[in-house]
Amino acid sequence: MQTPDKIVLEHAGALGDFFLAWPVFLSVLRHFPGIPAHFAVRPSLAGYLSPLATPCPPEIRRGLDARFQGNGWPDVLQNVLVVRPGLAARPPGVQAPQFLFLHGVVPGSAASPRDLYKDALARCGIAFAADYRETFQALFGRPGPHGDTVLLFPGAGHADKGWPLARFEALASLLTRNGLRPVFVLGPAELERGVAPLAGETLAPASVEALSAALRAARCVIGPDCGPLHLAGLHGVAGVALFGPTAPRQWGPQGLAIVTADLPCSPCVGVTSGEFAAACPRPLPCLAGIAVDTVWEQAQEVLALG
């Protein structure tokens, strides 16, 4: 691959997708040491690229927007490598060789985005940064539990990926009876949907950095296939991830234990950006079938290792 004059690290996906893509950015910048790099991501996630790059200057940002206007690759982006890890769909109309779009999902395959990104980088002659978790922790912090807090994540970006709230409440009672401090973490989606326990302590982090601090201070995290658990995995925080319609091999957070209901029909979907499992009741049996005692047993193992 030709050495560019500048690099733009671009991402437009959700929280979990961004953290799955973070190793790509580290790998590309290591491959091109000393090349000026900028980022174009959601403002809430900019802090996780600021040690590696700087915000896009206005003229480059305008060039990124102009790509979709049908006038070809903008002059301001000549010899600028734009790196965009995505999922299945490449943005239409952008075919320039300077646009490195990396597919994180292949239809019909349960390969993880991490593996797909690694393979795509290799085809470009770029070595994957195998130490990305260690580097992430050096930049953004390692686990430092305070007390016996266990963070519970009752929701996910897609409502059908969440474990039933009543199960979480029963788990919280078990944790309390065993001397632990359960705290329900409510993100924007949960607050909008009104997903909150009837009783118990709650936390609504005001930023991703505040979420990060809460994760690193916890002894353990428990939740469904959701973005915060991917951030916990990058930080090296212990935890339990509850999977139903999605594949743990594809979407499992690194370093976390996995619990499923082990139904033969699960997993049934690769990307949960739309409707799926239309014939199934809600909550989905693959999640409702996960017993509280099963999660508690797995949590005990995780806590004993922590």
UniProtKB/TrEMBL annotation:
This protein's GO cellular component annotations are:
cytosol
- By its UniProt entry, which Pfam families does this protein fall under? Glyco_transf_9
Please give the InterPro entries that the UniProt record associates with this protein: Glyco_trans_9, LPS_LOS_Heptosyltrfase
CDD domains assigned: GT9_LPS_heptosyltransferase
Give the superkingdom in one word: Bacteria
For molecular function, the Gene Ontology terms on record are:
ADP-heptose-lipopolysaccharide heptosyltransferase activity
Any Gene Ontology biological process: lipopolysaccharide core region biosynthetic process
UniProt keyword terms in alphabetical order: Glycosyltransferase, Transferase
Q: Which PANTHER family match?
A: LIPOPOLYSACCHARIDE 1,2-N-ACETYLGLUCOSAMINETRANSFERASE-RELATED (PTHR30160:SF1), TETRAACYLDISACCHARIDE 4'-KINASE-RELATED (PTHR30160)
Q: What is this protein called?
A: Glycosyl transferase
Organism name: Solidesulfovibrio aerotolerans
